[in-house]
Amino acid sequence: MPPHLLRKELEGFPQLSEIDVVRHFTRLSQWNYGVESGLYPLGSCTMKYNPKVNEDIAKMSGFSNIHPYTPEDLSQGILQLMYELQRFLAEITGMDDVTLQPAAGAHGELTGLMMVRQCLQARGEKRKKVLVPDTAHGTNCFDFHDCLLSDDRD
Fold it and tell me: Are 153 and 121 in contact (CB under 8 A)?
């Protein structure tokens, strides 16, 4: 190799063996939460346990590559699957209906509270307090209050 292409020594650059580098990064990787290595703490809404078969199915192109603006006539399969899932969840929970709409944990919490509010209003009940656990999304605190206590919100 021509001498002008050879890298010069980097001053202060640590000299480590390959095994030392591999052990270092393996040890770092074990600091991550993983479903294979233990339970997730409460409040970790984005770190749910999904069986590996579910992950494999969710990666199938019919699910992962569908665009939100796909025409209805090309979306019948996924629409049927979502409809049937909603029906199954309603039957399992004993609810009249369910929604697949919440896109994240905080959104799901707010949606749940809005459902509770509607249920209480239908019964003629009005509540003044909401118990919010430490593990709830802090961004929802004001939304919780507005959702359940305000008379002028739909």
Answer: no
Q: How far apart are CA 67 and CA 78, in angstroms?
A: 11
pTM score, whole prediction: 0.52
pLDDT tens-digit profile of 2-16? 988 888 878 888 889
Report yes or no: 71 and 57 within 8 Å, Cβ to Cβ: no
Q: Helix (H) and strand (E) counts for the chain? A: 6, 0
Closest CA to 133 of 150, 113, 104, 154: 113
Tokens of 145: 């209050």
Helix boundaries (H) for 1-75: 18-29, 52-58, 61-64
